[in-house]
Here is the input.
Amino acid sequence: MLPLALFAGNALAFPIEAKDTPNDGGRSVTLTWKTPDQHPARWILVRRERGGAFAPVVTLDGSLARYVDEADALTNGISYEYQLVADPADPPLNSEISLPVIPSPDWLDSTKANVLVVTVLFFIVLFFTINQAHRGRRWTFRKIPGLVAIEEAIGRATEMGKGVLYIPGVQDIDDIQTIASMILLAQVSRLTAKYETKLSVPTNSPAVYTVADEVVKSGYQDVGRADAHQADMVRYLTSEQFAYVAAVNGIMLRERPAANLLLGAFFAESLLLAETGHSIGAIQIAGTANVHQMPFFVVACDYTLIGEEYYAASALLSNDPLLLGSLKSADTVKLVLIIVIAIGCALATWGNPSLGAWFSAQ
Amino acid sequence: MKREIPILITLVTGLFCLIGFFVPHPAVRFLYDDIQQWVIVIVGATYVLGVANLLRINSVQVSQKALDWPYKIVLMAGLLGMMAIGFAEGNHYSDDASKFSWMYIRVYSPMSATMFALLAFFIASAAFRAFRIRSFDALLLAIAAFILMIGRVPIGNAIHPIIPAAADWLMEVPQNAAKRGILIGAALGVMATGIRLILGMEKTYGSGESS
Here is the structure.
């Protein structure tokens, strides 16, 4: 502990401002000060509960002008005061004692207000379109060739007496692309059950394996073909990226499926899988939201679902009015965003970047 | 009930996590962070199921002498061998000097790198197909790719400084515009998919008995 006398000298005092850190869970105070021209090598930041004795918190570089105190010792609702003490203490260049500050948690992170506004707008439009769907309104969407081709590919595999290989990407089940892939797998498994076509789903995560297994079982039950379901349709291979590629490529070369469906999150393995699939003459349909892998799929596959097409696929395949309503709401919000982007561009061109700044990630 | 309970769990946890994203208050954040931990625990537990599935399928294929069955023995030996070494070394399995690390670095990593290296050949074969000019779109693709490839190597600048500048413009303007368009669409797709799941509109889970 530093002697209290150290904190008493205040010959060239300068102000220090202490504020509750905004948009946080509390127990945090943000300190700012204007560094004097002749600053010491270091500052010793000291803190006290109001009316108590100062104790050192941390030693800071002398050139700093901001520090966020997030020490475990801070308690929400307690009033604290801060002071900077020069180290070395000659000349005695200490700050003034800050005004009392009370750290407290916030109920809303205002830096995420832009996301909140779009989310709320999305919910409003979604509930409106769901309501419209309940009243019998129907929407039509452009045909996506890749989706039409899924049933054709499974039909082709059936005619050839070969199987369908479904690759759900290399991310775990907490990735939204994998979740979307599981929804599509449900539709694909219903089709393979209906056509009595062999389905093979190699997974690279045990969690994905567990979910995919349930999804495929449900798909077979949905069309009354639970008896056709086989325990080895879905299998766990490995969680290692390139070991998974080697295993899936081996399956392709041994089993020679007639259709490869690559639907999920893919990374460096995308072209390794798609080119091997191309080499065995399989019809290939890929879908991903990973922008950097799309060119590989476009080149190597027969059809590619790009970005939002991939997420829209399950709704379009199901033809369920409620799901189609959710697509309509996404399109409506997209239109609103396009208008906002155009307005933002115009404002920025005329020297007012505020709208763009508000929408930028914070 | 088999369908309603999973939907209810999804609805409650989904909405809670959505709210937790915007609310930093400890009253919400504490449980929000806990839920994130539960995910890790649940995923960890599924490894038992995954390994059991892997052993079951491969041992059946070995017993039936299916195509390439000797490789299944190598696979299972590798899996069980690595597990045995890892368990034997306890908490020190990931130390630099451990046998587990030696196996990983000396055996697995080179094989993994070999697989990745194949990408060079696959890119060449895919590029050969992509650059066959069969339509106006393919022509544009080939021209853009040619400018980019030449512009990214020193010879491009040696021919004329405008070539690397054109490559940069292609990447920063048309490529970025298209990429951002796709990203905005995909982000809205993520929102739509998430909301459909949270509200139980997607009938993927628990659908086996009712649909």
